[in-house]
Amino acid sequence: GLLTRLQTSAPTVRTLSSSKSFSQNIPSCLWKLGRLNHVAIAVPDLEKARCLYRDVLGAQVSKTVALPEHGVYTVFVELGNTKLELLHPLGEKSPIASFLQKNKSGGMHHICIEVDDIKAAMTELKKKQMRILSEEPKIGAHGKPVIFLHPKDCHGVLVELEQA
């Protein structure tokens, strides 16, 4: 029958247990990469974006918070397993203002991943020739220390690391 044909024509799949363990290739670190905290999206109209996620898609959406030290307004959209961070420029020197000049309709700006020890992560990443966009962590939108890794070192993605 059909089951016999599927079993005989299905390709053989190697399992991880029969090959070299994936974790054997990862050197031990003094810090640990954690969960995806959020994906940040630059938006040209923050109120319109808030309404999309709250009124059209039915998500729980935070109030707008100004972060002058980062040059942004932020709104967080709760998704259960992670969040979206909506970013809008605060001031003309905002990095989001320059992003939106190049991307008029907005778009993905960065991803944020938690780490258990941001200072140890910085030390080790510098040893591995990873460029960090600040000398010291700054306090981010969640009130925790954050750093950003250069997108050219992360396959074109701006990566934010946040102390868990």
From TrEMBL:
Domain VOC span(s) in chain numbering:
35-164
* Gene Ontology MF annotations: metal ion binding; methylmalonyl-CoA epimerase activity
Catalysed transformations (reactions): (R)-methylmalonyl-CoA = (S)-methylmalonyl-CoA
Under PROSITE patterns, the record lists: VOC
Where does this protein have coiled-coil stretches?
Answer: none
Q: Which InterPro entries match?
A: Glyas_Bleomycin-R_OHBP_Dase, MeMalonyl-CoA_epimerase, MMCE/EMCE_epimerase, VOC_core
Q: Give the EC class as a word.
A: isomerase
The family this protein is said to belong to = Belongs to the methylmalonyl-CoA epimerase family.
Q: Which NCBIfam families match?
A: metmalonyl_epim (TIGR03081)
- Please report the name of this protein according to its UniProt entry: Methylmalonyl-CoA epimerase, mitochondrial
Q: Which organism is it from?
A: Mionectes macconnelli (McConnell's flycatcher)
Chain's gene name? Mcee
